[in-house]
Amino acid sequence: MTRPPDRAKADRERAEARERERAEAESRRLAEIHGQRVNRLVTGLQQNLSSSTSVTVPGTGGATYASYSSYVDLIYRTAWAPLKPRETTEASASVLVRVVIARDGTVISSEIRRRSGNAALDQSVRATLDRVRTIGRPFPEGARDSQREFDIEFNLQSAGAAG
Q: For 51-163, CATH number?
C-alpha cells in the first residue's frame, strides 16, 4: 500500500523534527558535560597550583560573565604556569593586567596596569599576555557586548591564601 504524497511528506517532516529535537537535546547535554568538566578543572587548578590569578569583570553583566571569567582565568593561569618565576623572596608580589576580549574570544589587547616591582614576575606576566591570543570560545549566550574588559591579578601567593 502506498501513502498519499501529502501524508508521506508530513511523516518525513515529523521524523525530521524529532531528529532535530534529539540532536538539540544531545547538544545541550554535551555542552553541560563540557561546562562541568571546565568547572572541575578550574576548581582543581585553584586548589593545586602554588600561585594564583584572579579575574574580575569591570562594569555590569557580572552574572552573565561569571562562568566565562572562570574560563578566562583558566586560560591565563595555564599559560602562565610554565613561565612564572620559581624562586623569589617576594611571595606577596602581584601584577594587575587588563585584557580586552572580542565576542568571538579573540584577545584584542592586553596591558599591565600595575607592575609588581619584581622584574622576573613582571616579565613572566608580559610573556603570558603575549602568548594568549584567543580564549578559545565566544562570550556566553545572552551577552550583548562586542568586546569586554577583564582585570586579572597574577600573584605568587598560594592558591589557598589568595582570592
A: 3.30.1150
